[in-house]
Each structure stands twice: as C-alpha cells, then as structure tokens.
Write a structure and sequence with these properties.
This protein is α+β, with helices and mostly antiparallel strands. Helices cover 35% and strands 19% of the residues. Bound molecules: 2-(butylsulfanyl)adenosine (IVH).
C-alpha cells in the first residue's frame, strides 16, 4: 500500500475534478478539440457538484460549477480601472494608404533615418464586439469589467464567468500576483443566425447584429440570460501587471496568454514595415467574408514593447497602435418600396427596394425582409431610413430602422453603424406602428389567390405551375446540379423560355431543338448545341435525383434518396398510401401527406409520364418492394453498409456514394462491426486499419464495381468508368 496522501480524500478529489474540468473545458471551448464526449464531461461536472454540495467548504471561486450563479443583479457596479482602457486611433482610409501613413508616422516619431531597417509590427484582427478587462489574481479570475469611459467601467464578472471560453483560472503553476488581460467579447455569426432563427420561430423580435447582441448580453443584469447567448472571447493585450516579467514583444505576450489558456486569434502575423502591413490588410480583406465572426478592420501594433514605451501616448490613444478599417458591413439607407417575390413553392417574400448603398463591398439595392410579420416586428415602413446589413456570404438584409431623431435609444455609443444611428441591440417599437405595406391577396405574377398558411407565417400563391414565377423556379430546380444536372440552363435562359411561352411544363424542356434555341436572343449556335447535349445527357439519371427534381414540397435530397432506397421503383412511390410512405426512414406525416397529394394530382402524374416518354430513365429494382414491415425494400444491397476511405482511381467520393446508395446500401462515416465492406483507395487512413482489425472485407474500386454489378444484375455500375 502506498503512503496515505496528506489531503483528505474529498478535498483531493475536488481538486482533481476541478483540474480535469478546466482541462477539458479548454479543449472544448478554446481549442475546439474535445478529448472526451460531452456526457463524460457532464458526469465529472456532476460529481464535483455533488462533492461541493456535501462539503461547501470545498467550493472555490474558480470552480467550474461557479460559472452561472442564478443571482439577478440590482445594477452593474462601477469599477475604476487600475490602468485606463485607452481607445485607438482609427485610420479611416480603407485603402493601402491607411497602412503606409501609420508606418510613416511611427518612423518619424522614432526619428528613424530613411535607410533604417523596417519597423516590425504585430498585425491582428479588429474584432467587432465589446472590450473587456479580465483581472486574474494569483491565477484566479476575480473581476471582469467593461471599458466604460476608459477610466471607469462596469462590473460584469458574473456574466463573463458564464462564457465557457474564458478560463476561471490561468493554466500555469506559477501565476503572477496580478495579471489583467484585455480582449473582446463577441458573438460568432453562426451563433447569431441561430439565435435569430429561434427568435423568428418564437415570433419574437430579432437582433440587429452580432456586436450589439454580444454587448447587450454582457451588460445583462441576469447572468442566466447572458449564459443563454453563445458568446466568445479573444485576448489582445494587457492591463495592470504585477510580478510578471513577460516577453519583450507584443506577439510573444499573446503567445504567453494563449499558453495560460486564453483564446487568442490565430489570424495574426508579425510583419516588417509598411509593405507587410499592406499585405496583411489585403490578405484579411480577401478572407473577411469567410471568417466565422465580424471584424471591422485590422489593428497594427509596434511589436517591440520597448519601442511602444518610447512612442508613448497622445492623450487617450497610444502612438504605437492604429486601427485600419474595411468598408462597413452595415449602412443606413432609405426604403423606397417593397416588392413581393414568388418562389418555387409559391411562397411570397417581401423584398426591400432600397436607395442603392455600398455595403459589405458591393452596391445593394434589394434586400430580403423574410416575411411580413418580421417586417411588422421591426416596425419598418416604406419611406423609413433603415439599416442594411451584408456580412459574409449572407444575403443582404434589412435588420432594423433608424430611431427617430432625438430618441433616447442610442445606448451603445458611437461604435458601428447601428450604434451611430441610434439603434440598440434589438428592434424595439418606439411609437405606435401603423404598417404601410400589406401582403397582396392575389399573386403579383399570375393573379391567383394568395393563401396564408394555417397557423404559419408564410403567404403562398395558389397558382401552382400555372404561375410563371413558380414555373421558372421549378425549371431551375429541375435543372439543378443535384437534381437533373442540366448544365447551361440558368436563370436568364429560363426567364426567356418561360416569358416567350416556349416552355410551359417540365417535359417540354426535352422538346427543345437547336433551331428553336438558337433563335433566342443572345444564344449562339454553339451554346444551343451544348444545351441540347446536356439535356440528352441528363436523361440518364437515378430515381433519387428524379424524385428530388420533381420539386415535391418537403422532399429534399435526403428524403428523395430514402424514398428511392425504400421503394426501388417510381411506380411504387406513386402508388404508395400515406401509411406506406410513413414507413420510410425520416418521413413524417407532413412529408407523407405532401408526397401523396403530389402524386394524387393528375397533372403531376401526366408530367411524370411525359418525362419518361421523353426518354428520362434510371435503373429500377424489379419485383415487389416497398415492404410494409418498415424494412427497406428489396433493392440489391438494401440493409448493407459501406464505408469509403482514401481516393479511388476514377470515382469521386460523391459518385461512389451515389452508386452505392442507388443500389440501396448506406454509406457510413466510420467502421464498426456492422460495416459490410470498406472501399479503400489511395492514401486510405485509419478506417482501413480499423477494417483489418475488425475483419471487415476491403474492396478497391474494381471490387466495388463488381459488387454493384453482381448485386443488381443490371450492371448499372459498369458503364460509369
Ligand atoms: S488594442 C491601447 N487590439 O477596438 C490599444 N483593440 O479602441 C487598445 N479592438 O473597443 C486596443 N480588436 O476593444 C486592440 N486586436 C485588437 C482589437 C481591439 C478590437 C477594439 C477594442 C476597442 C477598440 C479600440
């Protein structure tokens, strides 16, 4: 027996659990690389909770159980910053000149000769959120404060503790007595979109932008409210420091903070001189839309801390740093009108007609308003000044209206377009709202009645394929890459074909000849011939693609595949009762009803027959299928599971998957005892090892083709290579 440890067992276990939970929280929230499943984390968490419950003395302020304390605050207490939180000079020239001007200023102020070597800079992102000071004493987070006026901020410790990315304790054996970390709390775009999606579902007001939402969440009085908003954090600097002899450059300080377990953005670089700054600015500008969060520019800092000291401060701004902006992603403009667009399934969408405005790198004159109820919630009227947002690859949106002049709403100060315009984090109604836009009762395209869906928020044109707008969308969907894949049939051509009355139904597509096409405006003989060839090629397809291409409501790609796998033949899908449809994987009552209703329509059956008559075909499973037992139908490989790994010589991953699924088998992501075959190509990795370990048969591409051919007897796979 080893010697008994000195600490009593519960105390030792609590400390062990705290350390484990800190470690795994860091892996999960900061590194995005968890080592244990969530359930295991929860188990450790509950164990610690129970221990602390039984021994309250073991509860330390840095315990992971102490993040959310369900106490509602009376107000946010003022906090005087030990070291003022300065602002930063902003270079508003968004061209390269902004960077060169800063470098020239630094060189002048350092009195560097023209031929002196370039100054080294730390270049980083300018996060668009809320500045926060985190105070760690002996490694434990004791205080978090907003910037406020720079001298005095607000105590938001309880709220900040709810942010999983922020360590409650620094990951070091020798923490400095005092270390203040400065950085930005922000909200990722996907988290923001999800939050707004939920608000829409609940019929509640939507938030304007991630920045204001994050700022609002941090300044909540109820920490539980903050905890419900998914916030993130990046550290970018220091405040007061005692007893820490950190590294001599800014970049190395950030490395040290990352080693302490703080999130530090990887999108930073140490660059030489003006040329380095310009290259960084340009590089980030190209990648801006692809970042998972909003930035409004980049920040350049003189890298050597000794030089920072030498440069010093100018009233409230350091001389050693500058923010270099990008064109704004939000702008204010006038809402000139609202048009109604009709989609493929007849859904009417109000579209804002805007006074053209340059935002997020392009000129925007149309923006979605989603639906009429959202418009009402935002209190937007034609003629209003509105905020238009275009960030990332998200389509431009009207996110709110500008508060009336003199309104007392501009709580967020002067950062960002929305703040400057006096609009706060959410869309609140300020005075009695009388809408001046109403959804039309008749479809603006075809004149058919418009129906409001029962209980739903959507309005729909009832014209079906009689409606030219729906016909156009139906054709585009039919031709889409994941449907019939008719290359060259884009929206311009579809507009022409429908507007000229050449095409009224889907099957008429296959009657298009080169002569008829070449007669169209802007259509060269060559493109006409290409399109006819593409149409010809599209005739050979799969049942799943065909079902998807028909554009049945609620039948997406995955459902179409499930239907094809289950029934194996089109006639069996068309003849299926709702009850039989419900047997299909993932098909619920709404989807079953929609499929049944679609094929009950004589028009739709006619369309299907004409398409088949035009030569559209796919391999079908012979004999009876569509088991009522819930078992997949008797497709050749029904019930089998394959796993793909590595690169096959001729088939792409998608092509192989499609062939396998067309034969009724499933493609899984990982190998288990239930896997029937593993198909391995060049550079196959751990999945191949796993297959060998478990004794799962391994095929190469030729083996796969042989399997498919033998299984189906149709040899459908043999022609593909
Ligand atoms: S450094 C003394 N670095 O921009 C310099 N600020 O006034 C202090 N910001 O609201 C600021 N990203 O919160 C710095 N990488 C970054 C930043 C950054 C965003 C914010 C900061 C403040 C404003 C600067």
């Amino acid at each position: 027996m080893p010697a008994r440890p000195t600490a009593p067992v519960p105390a030792r276990r609590a400390a062990e659990l705290r350390a484990l939970l800190h470690h795994h929280a860091h892996r999960y929230y900061v590194l995005d690389a968890p080592e244990i499943p969530d359930a295991e984390y929860d188990r450790l968490f509950r164990e610690l909770q129970a221990l602390e419950e039984a021994h309250p003395a073991l509860r330390t302020p840095d315990s992971p159980t102490q993040r959310v304390l369900g106490r509602v605050l009376e107000g946010l207490a003022p906090v005087r910053h030990a070291v003022p939180m300065l602002s930063i000079h902003t270079e508003t020239d968004t061209t390269a000149a902004g960077a060169t001007a800063f470098d020239a200023r630094v060189r002048r102020e350092l009195a560097l000769a023209a031929d002196a070597p370039p100054v080294e800079y730390a270049a980083e992102l300018k996060f668009d959120g809320l500045a926060i000071n985190l105070r760690y004493e002996a490694g434990v987070l004791v205080l978090a404060a907003t910037r406020g006026d720079g001298e005095t901020g607000e105590d938001v410790t309880q709220n900040i503790r709810t942010i999983g990315q922020i360590p409650l304790r620094l990951d070091t054996a020798h923490p400095p007595p005092v270390l203040e970390v400065r950085g930005e709390v922000y909200m990722r775009r996907d988290a923001f979109e999800r939050l707004n999606e939920r608000q829409r579902d609940k019929g509640e007001r939507t938030y304007i932008n991630p920045r204001n939402t994050a700022a609002g969440a941090v300044r909540q009085l109820d920490p539980a409210m903050t905890a419900s908003r998914p916030l993130s954090f990046f550290a970018y600097g220091l405040g007061e420091v005692q007893g820490w002899h950190g590294p001599p450059t800014h970049a190395a300080v950030l490395d040290a903070l990352a080693a302490f377990g703080l999130p530090v953005s990887a999108d930073r670089r140490v660059v030489p001189g003006a040329a380095g700054l310009v290259a960084f600015h340009r590089d980030i500008e190209l990648r801006r839309d692809a970042l998972p969060f909003d930035i409004d520019g980049v920040v350049y800092k003189v890298n050597a801390l000794a030089l920072q000291c030498q440069l010093g401060f100018k009233t409230r701004e350091p001389r050693w740093a500058v923010a270099h902006k990008y064109p704004a992603q939000e702008q204010v403009t006038r809402l000139n009108g609202i048009e109604v667009q009709v989609g493929r399934t007849g859904k009417l969408t109000p579209v804002a007609k805007l006074e053209p405005v340059f935002v997020g790198g392009t000129t925007v004159s149309n923006a979605t308003l989603h639906n009429v109820f959202e418009l009402r919630r935002k209190g937007v009227r034609v003629g209003d000044r509105v905020i238009v947002r275009r960030a990332g690859d998200v389509i431009p949106e009207v996110v709110g209206r500008v508060a009336d002049a003199g309104g007392a709403d501009g709580a967020e100060g002067a950062e960002g377009a929305a703040g400057a315009a006096g609009v706060d984090g959410a869309n609140r109604r300020r005075r009695r709202y009388v809408p001046n836009f109403h959804m039309p009762r008749h479809c603006p395209v075809c004149g058919s009645d418009v129906q409001r869906e029962k209980g739903g928020i959507d309005h729909r044109c009832t014209g079906g394929l009689f409606c030219a707008a729906q016909r156009k969308q139906a054709l585009l969907h039919f031709a889409g890459r994941r449907a019939m894949d008719i290359e060259g049939l884009g929206d311009k051509l579809v507009d022409q074909l429908v507007d000229a009355g050449i095409i009224r139904t889907l099957p008429e597509l296959y009657k298009l000849g080169v002569a008829k096409l070449a007669a169209l405006e802007r259509m060269a003989d060559r493109s006409a011939a290409n399109l006819v060839a593409a149409l010809e090629r599209s005739k050979q397809t799969t049942l799943a693609r065909f079902l998807y291409a028909l554009g049945i409501r609620h039948v997406g790609e995955a459902t179409a595949k499930d239907l094809a796998r289950h029934f194996g033949a089109l006639d069996r899908v068309m003849a299926a009762s709702e009850e039989q449809l419900l047997q299909v994987n993932d098909v619920g009552p709404v989807v079953a009803a929609s499929i049944h209703a679609f094929f009950a329509q004589p028009n739709n059956r006619e369309v299907v027959e004409q398409l088949r008559a035009a030569g559209v075909h796919w391999p079908e499973q012979q004999g009876p299928g569509g088991g009522s037992s819930g078992e997949p139908a008797a497709l050749p490989l029904a019930g089998k599971t394959l796993v793909l790994t590595g690169t096959l010589p001729t088939l792409s991953r998608d092509e192989a998957k499609e062939l396998i699924e067309a034969a009724g088998a499933k493609v899984a992501g990982s190998v288990s005892k239930k896997t029937n075959w593993v198909v391995a190509g060049e550079e196959a990795g751990s999945k191949l090892d796993k297959a060998r370990e478990l004794g799962v048969p391994v095929l190469d591409e030729a083996g796969l083709r042989a399997l498919l051919a033998a299984a189906s007897g149709l040899a459908a796979a043999s022609g593909a290579g």
